[in-house]
Amino acid sequence: MALRDIVQDGDKILTKVCRPVEKFDSKLAALLDDMAETLKVADGVGLAAPQVGILRRVCIVDVGDGEGVLELINPEITVQSGKQSGAEGCLSFPNQYGVVERPMFVTVKAQNRNGEEFTVKGEGLKARAFCHEIDHLNGVVFKDRAERMLRPDEIETK
Ligand code: CO
C-alpha cells in the first residue's frame, strides 16, 4: 500500500465527471488499498478517486462506526428521504466548512472490488458521507451545495 497525494482546492480534476469502472482487477484493488491508507492518515470520513487524481467511479467511506472502510464502485443513490442540515468539510478543502443540506437516509447500490453488486443504507453522517463522495464522482464538491461557508470563529477545532 502507498499513500497518494490528495488533490487540493482549485484543481480542475475535482470538477470532472468520472467514468465507470469496467475492470475489477489488481489495479483497482491497489487503488482501493491506497485510498484506505490515505483516508486513515488524513483522518477523514470519506475519499473519492478523483481526489487522488483518478477519474473513475470509486469512493470509500469510513464514519468510524466500527464497520471499517466501505468500498463503493460505480455507486448510485437509489432511495433517499428526510433532510439534515449541518457543517461539512472535505480533505481537498482543508480548514473550510460549509452548511450543506443532505438527505437523512439514503440507500446506495454499488459494486464491491470483485464486481459483485450490493446495497447499503446510511443514516445521518453516513448518508451525508455517501452523498458527498458520490457528488465527487460527478464533479460536484460540497462548496457547490453549501448554503453558506462557516466563518473561522464558527469552526470547532478537533
Ligand atoms: Co470531499
Describe what this molecule looks like in 3D:
The chain is of the alpha+beta class and 158 residues long. The protein is built from three helices and eight strands. A hairpin with a 5-residue loop joins strand 6 and strand 7. The longest helix is centred in the N-terminal third of the chain and has 17 residues. It is globular and about 45 Å long. The model has no long low-confidence stretch (mean pLDDT 96). Bound molecules: cobalt (II) ion (CO). The site of cobalt (II) ion has 5 residues, from helix 2.
The main pleated sheet reads as: 5 strands, antiparallel
- List low-pLDDT spans: none
Number of helices: 3
State mean pLDDT (0 to 100 scale).
96
- Share in helix: 10-25%
How do the strands line up in the largest sheet? 1-2-3-6-7
Total E-strand runs? 8
* Structural class by SSE content: alpha+beta
* Radius of gyration computed on alpha carbons: 15 Å
β-strand amount: 25-35%
Secondary-structure element sequence?
Answer: HEEEEEEEHHE
Bound molecules: cobalt (II) ion
Distance between the termini: 27 Å
Q: Judging from the principal axes of the Cα atoms, what is the shape? A: globular
